[in-house]
Amino acid sequence: xxxxxxxxxxxxxxxxxxxxxxxxxxxxxxxxxxxxxxxxxxxxxxxxxxxxxxxxxxxxxxxxxxxxxxxxxxxxxxxxxxxxxxxxxxxxxxxxxxxxxxxxxxxxxxxxxxxxxxxxxxxxxxxxxxxxxxxxxxxxxxxxxxxxxxxxxxxxxxxxxxxxxxxxxxxxxxxxxxxxxxxxxxxxxxxxxxxxxxxxxxxxxxxxxxxxxxxxxxxxxxxxxxxxxxxxxxxxxxxxxxxxxxxxxxxxxxxxxxxxxxxxxxxxxxxxxxxxxxxxxxxxxxxxxxx
Length: 291
Fold this sequence. Notes:
Elements: H1 3-24, H2 51-62, E1 65-70, E2 73-78, H3 81-90, H4 114-126, H5 135-152, H6 158-174, H7 184-200, H8 203-210, H9 212-215, H10 224-245, H11 255-271, H12 280-290
Antiparallel strand pairs: 1-2
Helix pairs in contact: 5-6, 7-10, 10-12
Transmembrane segments: 6-22
GO cellular component, one term: endoplasmic reticulum membrane
Keywords: Endoplasmic reticulum, Heme, Iron, Membrane, Metal-binding, Microsome, Monooxygenase, Oxidoreductase, Transmembrane, Transmembrane helix
């Protein structure tokens, strides 16, 4: 048998094994979808640089709800208003869980109680405008700063302006105050956030999401995602410490104050410890972002 025949038989054998393994892959109660291949799943059927459009195109063949394998990870894809409404509104509780997201799991520090945190966040944010200023007043105030920036700073990129204004409204809720548009710390925060979204939507970022254990050891621009989140975490840890030192439980100023108060309440209920005993939470977070 010559080498050409040997290679041909080997290829037939490999293809047969791939088809056999992929068809035997258990799907459980997952909806039908394209047949995945071992290791790469259905990634060969999409364009990594235009993933959303590729998934929408597949829905024309497999329907508005189908199973798509990101590597070895099964993912249910929902396409279209009606199926999204049914899932996220009619069956909101069943779809309230969250899967792993490797790009934001820094140094193993991961808060797993997603539902409790989500419930707390929604309740707290609804209460802002509690107290002195409503959310509407914050938006109106920031709009005046933005108008003044357009007037005095020429040329001025409107994309940067609107992004900064929206970010400042969030900062006023979370940190209790806004930043000047020229503030170096604020500009660094915007850069880190925007840069991470750009990296996560790139091909490198998509590969990190699909093959996290492999890509964590592969050099490339995706490794900067972790470094950016560490810098963001360091900023949040500093603000946590600042709020803790000036905390007045009877007059919460922002989201961080409410969070610190809630942590103390939970610890007191669970362990019967006096207020201030759960400051180890801040130390744990600070150590996690400094590793």
